Fold:
Amino acid sequence: MPDADEVKDDEESEEEDDVEDEPPENFGVEQPRRGRQSVSAEAYGEWNKKQAFVPPVIEKTAEQKERLKAVLSSSFMFSSLDDHEFNIIIGAMKEVNVATGERIIHQKDDGDTLFVIESGEFECLIKNYEDGTEKVVKVCGPNDVFGELALLYNAPRAASVESKTTSIVWQLDRQTFNYIVKETAQNKRARYDTFLQKVPLLSDMDSYERSQLADALRVQTVADGATIVTQGEMGNTFYIIEEGAAVAMKDGVNVMNYTVGDYFGELALIKNQARAATVLAQGATKLLSIDSLTFQRLLNVAYLEERAAQYT
Structure:
């Protein structure tokens, strides 16, 4: 017969097992909404079994697939996917035709889809609930993604989105996004958000603006001595040095040295003029680049113009 201590140990062990088999406190109870929150891993157990992921496959014509491939290939959100992941996304997306003035996202609603624009324009609007007015905070065009924040951060819609023109968008469901895209997108945002905070030019951006910029960055590696920009040419790209160094040469004279966190190329974009100098890589150099359209849309151009006046 077991002694008293053994019985006590067995009872404690059973109690611990019971605790592990119970769902977390408040599981299944609707919680009050708060502002945007960070993502936490979902808990699983007997009460919440993780299901095998079976991506949806929406039939498409060959013409639709080619159009969608062109759109996704130009979108930052999907640029890091491998071929297999890319094909899953192609299969899961649904084409949606949107009429002028149609509101396809409503602020504070729960979000279960994101959208990629093929054609047309959309306004992102934030409502002031005190006076009922709405303010346009962003205009999205072809290849832009919207609706992803609710999926990335498990939060209500941060803004309403309404079409300015007759438009075509591609819609992706939350489950496919979570399994295929989310981790890649989060890792990229986290990595470059930290880096961008250290760039003086971008110090006035808030976290949301910085995350949008992080999504839009293109990564480029150049060899020692490679020409990045050429004096006299029209510029359409802004650069930030992530690794390595570069030197600016004007009429053959060294006029500037760049190291990690330094940026160049903004003057040609702000003033719509030719490059003022040639910039060469010094050693293997890793660059983050932003095209002119993204530069104008995401960065505070008025602020940059003030800074540019220092060089005139």
In short: The CA atoms of residues 7 and 13 lie 10 Å apart. The chain has two domains: 62-187, 217-311. The domain at 217-311 is CATH 2.60.120.10 (Jelly Rolls). The longest strand covers residues 237-250.
